[in-house]
Structure formats: C-alpha cells, structure tokens
Amino acid sequence: MLWVGVDVGGTFTDGVLYNSQTKEFMFAKVPSTPGDPASGVIDVIKDLDVNMEAIDRFVHGVTIGTNTILQHRGAKVWMIVTKGFGDVLEIARTNRGHQLYDIRTVKPAPIVPRTQSIEISERVAYDGTEVLELDEREIRRVLRGLPIAENDAIAICFLHSYLHPKNEQRVAEIVRDECPGVYVCTSSDVLAQFREYERFNTTALNAYIGPLMARYLTNLRNRLGERGYRNGVFITTSNGGSAPAERAIRLPISTVLSGPAGGVAAALHLGRDNGLPNLITCDMGGTSTDVCLVTDSEAPVTNEQFIGGYANRTPQIEINAVGAGGGSIAWLDAGDILMVGPQSAGANPGPACYGQGGTSPTVTDANLVLNRLSPDTSLAGRIALDRNLALEVLRPLGAKLGLKELNLADGIVQIAVARMVSAIKQISITQGHDPRDFVLCAYGGAGPMHAAFIADELEIGRIIVPVGPGNFCALGSIISDVRRDYVSTRLMQTQGIAFSLVEDTFSQMEEKAQSDLLAEGIDHREIELRRVLGMRYVGQSWELEVPLPGSITSLEALDEAFFKIYQRRFGQNIKAPTEIVTFRLAALGRGEKPKFSKWRGLGGLEDAKLAERDVYFGGSYLPTAIYDRQKLSAGVEINGPAIIEESGATTIVPPAWRAVVQEFGHLMLERR
Amino acid sequence: MSVDPITLAIVQNRLDHIARQMGWVMTRTARSPIFSQSHDFSCFLADRDGTIISQADGIPIHTGGGGFAIRALLEAFSGEIEPDDVFILNDPYEAGGNHLPDWVIARPIFFEAQLVGFACNRAHQSDIGGGAAGTYNAAATEIFHEGIRLPPLKLVSKGALRNDLWKLLKINTRTPDLIDGDLRAMIGSTLIGAEAVIKLFAELGLDKGFAAFAEILDYADRRFRKLISELPNGRFEGEESTDNDCFSNVVTTIRVALIVEGEKITVDFTGTDPEMRGFKNSSLANTHSAVYMALAAYFESKLPRNEGTFRSVDVIAPEGSVVNARPPAPTTMCTVFVAHEVVHAVWKALAKAAPELACAGWGKSIHSVTSSTKGKDRFVLYHWHAMPGGGAVSGRDGFNQIGHLIALGGLTLPNVENYEQLYPIKIHRQEFRCDGGGPGKFRGGTGVEYEADVLVASEYSFRGEGLETPSAYGVNGGDWGVAGELRLILPNGDGIHTPKYGVQSFPALKMVARSPGGGGWGDPMERDPLAVWNDVRNGVVSPAAAKQVYGVSLLANGLGVDASAARRRN
C-alpha cells in the first residue's frame, strides 16, 4: 500500500509518502501557494516521486477553514432563524471569556450581521412538538426578496431543532430550490445538541467557511483525478481523525484544526511507541506555533473551544496557537520596542534571505545571520538562502535601535522564543502542570531550531525531535483513523425507563454510523464504535461523559458507572436519581498504521560530519560541528554546540545540551 | 525565606488554577441553575490569616468580601479549627457576609498538622426562607424578613457532617432538595481545592509555601501602588443616587471622595445618606467589594485577584449610612443595588482623575423573579433574558445586552432551550431595542425587548430599579441610556401596573419588558457617520434619531448618509 499525507501550512506545504511493504517513508517540502493551495499539493506529490495511479490513500490537512475565520474573509452568511431570536449570535449569552475585568475589550462582530438575520414564523416546543407550523409561502417570498448571491451561504437555525429537525430540513429543501448552488446547512445537521447559542454559532461558522472549502476541495479532487488518482480524498479533522472530502464539505467546521491536530495525532503515536506518555508538543512552522499538552498518552479533547472569539462546539483537540514562526516579521512598535509577529512574510515573498523580494526581517533571517541556519543547504529543497540579503534588511532596524545586526538577530530569536514560552505556560503552568515534568516534542520546520532555547526557559530537561520533523503533521494525517462523531440530545430520567431504550437509541445511531462509514469506503471489519452517554443528576445543568462499554447492560450498572466517574472527577457522589442528556457515538475506521523501521545510519560521527562553522551562542561565536542527520547511526551521541541538518528542518544542540540518536532514528536532546 | 521568581509565578498560577478548578466543579455538580448556568458564586483561597490569596474564579462583586468572612470565622472559632472541619456562615452583621443569600463554605487546610489556609466558596442559594420565595423579599424592612441568619458554624466536624445542623438548614428553605445538592457541590469543591493546596505545600515545603503566599500578596500590592502613583494627587468626588427606597420615591445619594496621595488612595463615603427602609442597604463587606471591583475594572484587568492588590486602599464608610448599615436593616438587594450605585459613584470620581479612561454608566436591571411549583417542586425563575445594556468606553460601544454591572458580564445568560426545558415558560422574543442606547461618539448598549408567557400562576418579586428613570449616565458629552419598561398582560388583555419593588401573585400571564440602555461616551455629533448608518441599517437607531441626535441624514435613495460637518452642527 502507498499512502500519501499532505499538510498545507501558511508557508510550506509538506508531504509524506509511506510504503507499507518496505516500511519506508519519503518526505518532501515545497512553498505553499496561498492563492491556489491545490497547486502546492500537486507540487509536493510530484516531489515525492510517486505515480498518482499507484496511491492507495491520500489524506490531507487543510488550514483554509481556520484562516478564513481568523482573517474574517468568509462568505456572506444569511441566517434563517426562529422569529424573535435574530440576535442570539450577538448576545452570545453575554459571555466575554476570561477577560471579565477588561471592560474595554471589543467583542468580535457576530458572523451574521443583523441585516442578514432573517426571522421567519415557526416554533417547536421544548419537548419537540411543533406549536407553530412553517409557512412555506412566506419562506419563498422572503427568499425571493433577498439579494442572495451565488457565493453566499445560508445557515438555518431554529429553536429546539435538535429534537425536531423537520422544519430546518424543509427550509433547506426550499432554499436549494429557490437558490440553487448556494451553500446551505442546518443547525440540526451540524450539531444536533441543545443550547441554541452554541449550536447556532457553530452552524453560522460552518456556513461562513463552507463555500470556500467546497470550491477548494472540489477543485483539488478534480485535479488529482486528472492526474490519475482514483481513490478518495480524506481530510484531517480537528478531533485528530480524518473524514472524506464530501463530509468535510458538508461539515467544514470540523476541520478548523486540521493540520495541528494531525501533528498531535503523530506525537501521540510517537509517545506511545517510545514510552513517553507526557509530552508538550511544539509545532513551529513559518507562520505560527501550535502547542498541546499530552498527559498519559491522551490529547485533551474539548467541545468548548472558541476560534477567533467565536464559540465552536465541534469536538477538537485542545491546542494553543501563537503567531510566531520562522517567517514572523520583526518590527518596532510606537514606542520603538522590538516586536516579532504575528505578521508573517509567508511563502511569498517569504523571508528576505529567500531572495524573492522580501524586505522585512524575519526570524529565519535572524537565524541565518547567527549562522544557525546553513547558507549552503537549502531549506525547502529549492530555496537557496542569501545571508547578505538578511544582513541588509536587519541593518535599518538595527540602526534605529542602535544595535549591530548580530545583536538584533539574537534579540529577534529571543523574542520569538519568549512568545512560544508564554503559549506553553498557558497550557501548562496556568493549568497547574509543571512543564519540568514533560518532554518537549519539537517539530514543524522551525521547531527543532528553537526547541532547546524554549526548554531552557521552561527548565525542561528533554526534547524529542522525531524523524521527519518538518513533515510531522503530514505524517499525522496518514496515522489518524477515519473518525466521525455523532451526538443526539435525548433528555430521559433513568428511573422508570427500560435499558432497552438506551440500547435502541444507540442502535439507531450505530446503524447510521455503520452505513455512513461503509459509504465512506471503510471496510466493516475496521469499524470501531464507542458509545458515551452525557449524564447528570436530575436537575443539574452539566453532563458528565460516561463511556458505555458492552459490559454495561442494566440501568443499575449505568448508574454505578456514573457514580464512579462522578466520584473520581468531583471528589463526592450521592445515590440520587440520574438522567441522560446526550448520546454520543464515535465511529472509527481503524486502518493499518505506519510503522517506523529501525534506523539505519550510514556510519560513525565523522562520516556524518558535513562541516564546521562559527555559530552564535550566548553572546559569541563558537566553533560548531554540522552533521547530516541521515548519516547518523542509532546510539550516536553528540555534544553541543552542534547542528544537525536534514531536508526540511535544522536541529540546534546548544553548548549545554547533548543529542542521542534513538533506535528508530528520533533524536533525544538532553541537558548535560 | 525568599522565593525565586519562577516558583512564585508558578505558585500564583497554580492557586488561580485551583480556584478556577473549584469553580468548574461547582458548576458541574450544583443542582440549581443559579449556580450551574449563571455562575452566581465565587471560589477563593485564603491564607491562614483569612487574607484572600486567589480569587481567579467568580463574579466581581465578590472580589473583596471573602476575607471578611474568613476573618470572622477565625475569630469565632479561635483554637477550635481542626483538620476535616467545614464551616458555614452568611450573616452580614455577625459573620462578614455580604448578604444573607450568599452562603460561604470554608474548609481549613492543614499541612503537617499546621493550618496553612482555607479553601472556600460563596454562592447564592436558591431559597433561604424569609418573606418571599427565591431570597429576594422586596417587602423586607428588617433583616429578619429576609431569611435564616447564620453566624460562623461548624457544619462538618473532623469529617463528620452535623446532621442536626443540616436538617436545620433544610427546614428553613422552600427548596430543600436544591439546597441539599448545592451545599454538597460547595463542600465537594472545597475538598478538591484543599487537596490541591496540600499537594502544593508538599512540593514546596511549609516554609517556602508560607513565603510564597506572603510574596504573592506583596507583589500584588506593589502592582497596584504603581498604578495609583501614576494618578495626579488630589481629591476627586463623585455621587450617584437611587430614586426609591423600595416603598416610595425617596432619593438616597451615595457621595464618595477619592483622595490620592502618592501611592495611596482613600475612598471616603463621608456625607453619604443614611440607611434606607428597604433592602438595598450595603454591608461593609459588600461596599469593599464594590469599591475594589470599580477600581480593578477601571484601571487594569490584569491585576492579581487577591487581597494584596487592595492593601493600599483605605475605605471609609460611616456606620449607619447606606454603605455600612447597622442591624437590623435589611440588605439582600445590596450586592446588585446599591453596589451598582457605589461603582457608578467611584467611576464618576475616577473620571475626574483619569478622564480618558472614563466609563459610561450601565443600565440597571428590571427583571422580576417569579416562583411557583412544577410538579411537587418549587422553582425560582429569574427573567434574565431581559438584562439591560452596558455603557460605552472610548473605543467601543456599550454591550447591547449584558448582565448586572456588578458581574461585569460574568453572569452567563441562560439559553432559551434550556430554560424552556426546566420551567413552565415560553419565550417569544429577546432582541435589541431601537433608540435604547445612550447617544455618544461611542453609543451605549441598546437594551432588549423581552416577551414571554409565564405558563402557571406565580409569585412575582419585583426588582425594577431600572424602570421609569434612566439609570445609565453618559460621559464626556455622551447621553443617558433610555429607561426600562415592564408590563404584565393577563389572558383577557388587561394590563397590570407593577410596582418597582414588591411581592405579588398573579395567574398565568404574558410578560413584556424593555430593558434599559447603557450610557454613551463622547459627543454623538462626533460619531463616525458610517457607524450611525450601520446602526440605522441594523435597526438599533431610528432614521429620526440619526438626524436629530447624530446629525446624520439618510440619502433619499437609502444607500448612504449625508454627514457633512456643517449639517451635523446645525
């Protein structure tokens, strides 16, 4: 089997090819093509030197959804909503996040402005009964009076639709009839869960990114098809799984963390294989750095995330992002204080040293000036780096600050490191975890270059740099399982019902899940279904997730399981009546996973040594050996200062550190 | 013993995280929606002297009150505090409480047989007896009309729950099951907090732990002193009134002078009117909290949330005044009103010291609390969907709908779907008002139109502070937000005139409310014409108001505005 994974980042598009017979990986990296991201995907597959017709599986991490939301350039969304509730998105339960005392914060404008919030008569009561019928003629009349354009999107959001989706579904049909080709989604399809603000907002976001995603994926699929690819296109999803393109088009909101979630999925795999259950992942690319805290080989999954200040209730891995990457631009604020990011030079023009017309100094330029990046080798296969260009763009900024280029370059890297350190603190110290108890897992093109400096600040003692760190997210996409989450709100007290009601509800969901996954091309033997109930004591407002393995076959056993989890979570429980609120089903297509083979180094330390050059560390240049990672054998130890180069990434081993090549080729850095 | 800065930062973050974790446990385990959905509670950690060292979680009006409670408990139980004890209290006169409905649960934390601190929470109960269901007896003229009073009491003694006391609490409420569940949630959350603090001490050791606590308070003190030192020295005055004493139209005024001297600030309420007949009198703990939150919100959101921050703030609150009532004056309403008025008065004074940071007033709430039974259970329903609009600041308009000022928006509004599941109510509308927001360069929040059928006969506790009289002042040339309105309509179409405050019973009916708008900031004639145009398109400012108040006329073709400077000024 030949698997291809591709991750499109802000700066580079990374590819990985895995051959399950030979257990060999191939990596490639090309500049991203933001205007037409599919071109970068095609380019990187070309670089992997694989025949399209021979590829069995293609999995893809996309950032289109995230970028669209963060840059506020989504579709014009019309929301068709139950009369009287046109302001749900702006009221947003008045929630202002964690900035309670900051009364000067500006709340982000609602995804759907008031003028595009279309109220219509219909009403379903809390128990799912219809109390005011839909007036189809009214809907058609309203739709015909609106200037809805082909590239707009329509979100249909009715109260209590999670119980009674018919009205939303009917209006969707009418919309398809009246406005053919316009992207439309309903809240009961996007998130069949009660709590209208959260459901409506998630649906509005889905509509906001839907048209762009649909255009992109349709185009990509066609272009891959033209080149001979015959199988399905899969997309990495925010929950660390993957989904076929059709589903990603229908539910693009479930892909907003596509790329970073792939990286975390790969890190989990790496951690399990190498006995490292507690990791802080640090994925530094060209534009941003994503960090995630993994404990006991589990990534935290949340369905209470916000993106750009907007509630998104689809399940996703909890990841913290900061706008600091290799391409982040250094600049001076109003008070002439040196700042780095969040603006990035991106792929085009890229850092000044790429020689593509970049005029702003970036983190990569700074690293080149410090000699941490080699001017001779090229970063992404085809870009040669010009140190003089880097020096040139640093000069004016340095003059303004009264700093030599070298000191300025050092300062730029330090500031970028400080920003990543604070992102890690937010997910560790702030949450009560001491980063010193974790191993830093550094990947992304720029991660291994900065990892040791980050670790120094946090007093982290060990860093693992995986094989192919520059392509780790792409690797994660082929490691991830096909996964689909189903949720259904069905309020029922457990006293006085039969267990068969629970069984039946899940059976129905499972039947649908089975047929959905089969339709997505998953072999039935690979399907794994996990049942989870959202339960609480009668009268409470928040549910606790209770996994429901096959061994639980009675309500008594179910209550026992709930009490046990409640005790563990909250330190107390009482034997009081409980109720079920939500049925959750995770459907996984558990395919074969790539395996790393034993690392075959090509010789001793001297064979791997490429050169020696003076590299700037802690205030002065130190003679530093440069090694070719591909040639280092397992078991080899390298004392810093040293630099280990490979295609797609550079690992820096500062003077106080040592690197050891592991059995499967991963590098372990340890403070000496 | 000194503590290195990294350890200190980690300890401070750990404590804040513990407080937040306690709050999370409370929300997830509580029984009544007032806890579990609306977060009307706070969790905090105090040191062994009863000084708050972290209150990362909770609503702002609880900011400074917790320390009073723990210090009252330390005094009452000196020498009798043992491991696995849990205390309870609420009384504003005897126990450092803010008002009776907020019960405090405090668990002493021991490490190596030494008291190291307290894990605590303060939470608004669903019902505590008294003259009206749901804790708000608008007819109260004495604290005895407001519910059960609790001095510091030992609720759990060395791990054993005092069943006699538990029973006493449960027979003094109309909602015994809710109280039972909520108290368990409170006790459980303090257990989780205490365990986490013990773990912290186990890592640090006793001496370093104490040293870190002390340094955390000192650091907060330094941060706030620096802020104050940047203000001009002098005396800055502000005042704010309420137009009723809950029974008749009697004006009560709060007068405050802020005296800034170097790094110190004195907040002097001398000259404030005497306590009133109704239940809006403030306890000392509540007045401190209101002052602290006014300062923290005005200056810097990132100040540490502990009592060290306000070490340099002196509050002078004359005894017998409405900001420091004497027993048996009733006080239940004070955490909302007059806390709101105290914050407004302090903000008005601050606007003279640092005008560019001025905050316009927030609308005062008008929503009633209705109570009835569903099946055999009593329920208490807050009509929170009718919350008012907030005031503008330089740089942004007021929030169109936001909760009580004293929560700074920290009370999360319930979802309609959840409310309709829980209560016999059907909500028809919750949408922004037109022309409700105070005009300004930055406009006040609009307030909302709220309409709902209350499907069963209910008892109504009215708390209409924001009705009739505009309640949100404008600043720097901005104008007042519009006052609120409330109508009850019987099935036969008859309207009922409702009092501002009071308790009355009615059959099933329709409630129609317009909540007050927030105050505006700056001259409305300077508002960006495009912002005015947007407001008109969005239906929150009428074309007439755009022309008269903002000097912006719509073009005849409806596709834009005419806002030439000459026209605006005419």
Please give a structural write-up.
The complex is a heterodimer of chains A (672) and B (570). By secondary structure, chain A is α+β, with helices and mostly antiparallel strands. Helices cover 31% and strands 28% of the residues of chain A. Chain B has 570 residues and is an alpha+beta fold. Chain B is 28% helix and 23% strand. In chain B, the strands form five sheets. Chain B has a seven-stranded antiparallel sheet with strand order 2-1-5-4-3-6-7, sandwiched between helices. Chain B has a five-stranded antiparallel sheet with strand order 14-15-20-17-18. In chain B, strand 1 and strand 2 form a beta hairpin. The radius of gyration of chain B is 24 Å and the shape is globular. The termini of chain B are far apart. Classes of the chains: A alpha+beta (672), B alpha+beta (570).
Task: Itemize the secondary structure elements and their pairings.
The complex is a heterodimer of chains A (672) and B (570).
Chain A: E1 2-8, E2 12-19, E3 24-31, H1 37-47, E4 57-61, H2 64-70, E5 77-82, H3 88-91, E6 117-120, E7 123-124, E8 130-132, H4 136-144, E9 153-157, H5 166-178, E10 183-186, H6 187-190, H7 196-226, E11 233-236, E12 242-244, H8 245-250, H9 258-273, E13 279-284, E14 289-294, E15 301-302, E16 305-307, E17 310-312, E18 316-317, E19 320-322, E20 328-332, E21 338-344, H10 363-369, H11 387-401, H12 405-427, E22 439-443, H13 447-458, E23 462-465, H14 472-479, E24 482-493, H15 499-519, E25 527-537, E26 544-547, H16 555-570, E27 578-589, H17 605-608, E28 609-617, E29 620-628, E30 637-639, E31 642-646, E32 649-653, E33 657-661, E34 667-671
Parallel strand pairs in A: 1-4, 4-11, 5-6, 5-9, 9-10, 13-22, 22-23, 29-31
Antiparallel strand pairs in A: 1-2, 2-3, 7-8, 11-12, 13-14, 14-19, 15-18, 16-17, 20-21, 23-34, 24-27, 25-26, 25-27, 28-29, 30-33, 31-32, 33-34
Helix pairs in contact in A: 1-7, 2-7, 4-5, 9-14, 10-11, 10-12, 11-12, 12-13
Chain B: H1 5-29, H2 33-36, E1 41-47, E2 52-58, H3 66-76, E3 86-89, E4 102-111, E5 114-124, E6 153-157, E7 160-161, H4 163-171, H5 176-204, H6 206-229, E8 234-242, E9 252-261, E10 264-268, H7 284-299, E11 313-316, H8 339-353, E12 369-374, E13 377-382, H9 416-422, E14 425-432, E15 448-454, E16 458-463, E17 485-489, E18 495-496, E19 501-506, E20 509-514, H10 529-537, H11 543-548, E21 553-554, E22 561-562, H12 565-569
Parallel strand pairs in B: 10-11
Antiparallel strand pairs in B: 1-2, 1-5, 3-4, 3-6, 4-5, 6-7, 8-9, 9-10, 12-13, 12-16, 14-15, 15-20, 16-19, 17-18, 17-20, 21-22
